[in-house]
């Protein structure tokens, strides 16, 4: 007599999805900023000032404050200076290891979804007695 589809696959899928999430967070953490990036803790304006003081923007005098500063969706810090010029710093600097980690995370998530789909399919279902 069929009582219901087994749910032993649920912990496997949960573990796979958690691993994919952790890999994604680690890969993005490695990609943001690079070794010389200023912190955004004090806001994008202070990050622009720090970059200008360190000489990252050769056309900007050290100590100059930006008129506006914004972090764009593509991971770019955009600083607009009083003279109307704009400078940008790319925060997302991916390396080969980070890209591989993101591919592994994507593969794990896809495998988890496929595993769940197969386990819940009536065609492949294993029923409890």
Describe this structure in words.
- A hairpin with a 5-residue loop joins strand 2 (76-80) and strand 3.
- The chain has two domains: 1-32 and 92-123; 36-91, no CATH class.
- Strands 1-2-3 form a three-stranded antiparallel β-sheet, covered by helices on one side.
- It has helices at residues 9-31, 44-53, 96-120; strands spanning 68-71, 76-80, 86-90.
- The chain is built from three helices and three strands, in the order H-H-E-E-E-H.
- The chain is rod-shaped.
- It has 129 residues and is mostly helical.
Fold blueprint:
Layout: H1 9-31, H2 44-53, E1 68-71, E2 76-80, E3 86-90, H3 96-120
Antiparallel strand pairs: 1-2, 2-3
Helix pairs in contact: 1-3
Keywords: Membrane, Transmembrane, Transmembrane helix
Transmembrane segments: 12-32, 101-120
